[in-house]
Automatic annotation (TrEMBL):
InterPro entries reported in the protein's UniProt record: Brnchd-chn_aa_trnsp_AzlD (IPR008407)
Transmembrane segments: 6-24, 36-57, 63-96
Originating species: Tenuibacillus multivorans
Keywords attached to this entry: Membrane, Transmembrane, Transmembrane helix
Name the record gives this protein: Branched-chain amino acid transport protein (AzlD)
Pfam families noted in UniProt: AzlD
Top-level taxon of origin: Bacteria
Length: 97
C-alpha cells in the first residue's frame, strides 16, 4: 500500500510538470510573452535570495546588503556566477572580522 501511495504521488506531481511541455510544443507565443516568461526565473531567484541577504548576520543586515551589492556589481560585468558568489562571500567575511 505504501508503494502504491508513493507511485500515485509521483504521478500526480509529474503530470503538471510534463503536461505544459507537451502543450507548449505546438504553440508560438508573441515576443512580449516570451520576454515575460524569461524574466520569471530572475524574479523567483530575487524573491528567494533577498530575505537571506537580510539575515546573514543577526542584528547586522547592512553586512548582508553590502555582500549582495558586491555580487550585483560583479554580475554586471557578465563574468561567471562563481565570481559573484566568491566576491559576496569575501565581502561578508571581511566585514565580520
Amino acid at each position: 500500500m505504501i508503494i502504491a501511495t508513493i507511485i500515485g504521488m509521483a504521478i500526480v506531481t509529474m503530470v503538471p510538470r510534463f503536461l505544459p511541455a507537451f502543450i507548449m510544443n505546438g504553440l508560438t507565443l508573441k515576443p512580449w510573452v516570451n520576454r515575460w516568461l524569461n524574466a520569471i526565473p530572475f524574479a523567483a531567484l530575487g524573491a528567494l535570495i533577498f530575505p537571506g541577504i537580510m539575515y546573514v548576520i543577526d542584528d547586522r543586515p547592512l553586512i548582508g546588503i553590502l555582500g549582495g551589492v558586491v555580487a550585483a556589481v560583479i554580475a554586471l560585468f557578465n563574468v561567471n556566477v562563481i565570481f559573484a558568489v566568491i566576491g559576496s562571500i569575501l565581502t561578508v567575511y571581511l566585514l565580520t572580522m
